[in-house]
Amino acid sequence: MKFELRKVTRRFGDRIAVNAVSVEIPQGQMVGVIGRSGAGKSTLLRMINRLQDPSSGSIHFGGIEVSSLKGAALRNWQRDCAMIFQQFNLVPRLDVLTNVLLGRLNHRSTVTSLLNIFSREERLMAIAALERLGIEQTALQRAGTLSGGQQQRVAIARALMQDPKMVLADEPIASLDPLNAKIVMDALRDINEREGITVITNLHTLDTARNYCERIIGMAAGHVVFDGPPQELTAAAVREIYGSDRDGAGIDETMTSTSIDISGAASPAGKPLSAGIEALATARA
Ligand SMILES: Nc1ncnc2c1ncn2[C@@H]1O[C@H](COP(=O)(O)OP(=O)(O)OP(=O)(O)O)[C@@H](O)[C@H]1O
Ligand SMILES: [Mg+2]
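# adenosine-5'-triphosphate complex -> structure
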């Protein structure tokens, strides 16, 4: 099923955060959205999930007009497109398992939700999701006591519990160290490849977008100024997205690097990390 934005605009007062964006995304793509701070990346994701409404234009998924959904249909849509945030948005005082189970809430009636009863099947599903992300040993720990990387993996497990068609991730690795950033991006790639879930992720680092995304959308001042595969993202395209600095020297790609690089030497796009680092990255705590 195809997802589509048609001339979507969002204004805040007289400021235009997203300006007439039209994009078509086939089911199963892994899309990175890049751009300077204030370019409109978060606003774009929030409109897709309907946390914010467009000022004009429309959003479509298959035959559904997402931008006009209300009530239960809107809640179903929000269940279908799970959000992942930079700050994880877990409930820190609740244990990890309960946080993951919260992803099921939209699948349940209000009464069973209020009673806070989760079935054995749902609990098993939650544990399986935690196992898949390599953090099942934290199930009974309070979410707030986990490291950032572990918390983001809990958030991904919670998203999986929603059985989503799409995962929207807003700077999912911006608060993480390089090793955890790799683990989290690998997890997003895995659900994209194995379940065919569309992933749209805002990233503030170009090398991550190049490494993980088959399609990159570059935004500047609310407009889409680039839309294509990473290999078409030339230095000129990067300058158009990020702009030039005052000397007109342009932006150097290393300035926007996440540096998943741990060895001290840059890891060129697409090149696998060394076996040692790979082992570390996949090791379970
Ligand atoms: N709720 C709001 N009220 C007023 N202005 C807003 C609001 N949300 C966003 N904006 C403005 O819209 C523009 C786009 O913001 P947005 O958060 O989408 O950018 P971004 O690309 O996600 O930036 P960053 O990389 O810093 O997260 C900015 O100028 C911002 O100040
Ligand atoms: Mg943002």
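# post-check
The domain at 3-282 is CATH 3.40.50.300 (Rossmann fold).
The chain has ten helices and ten strands.
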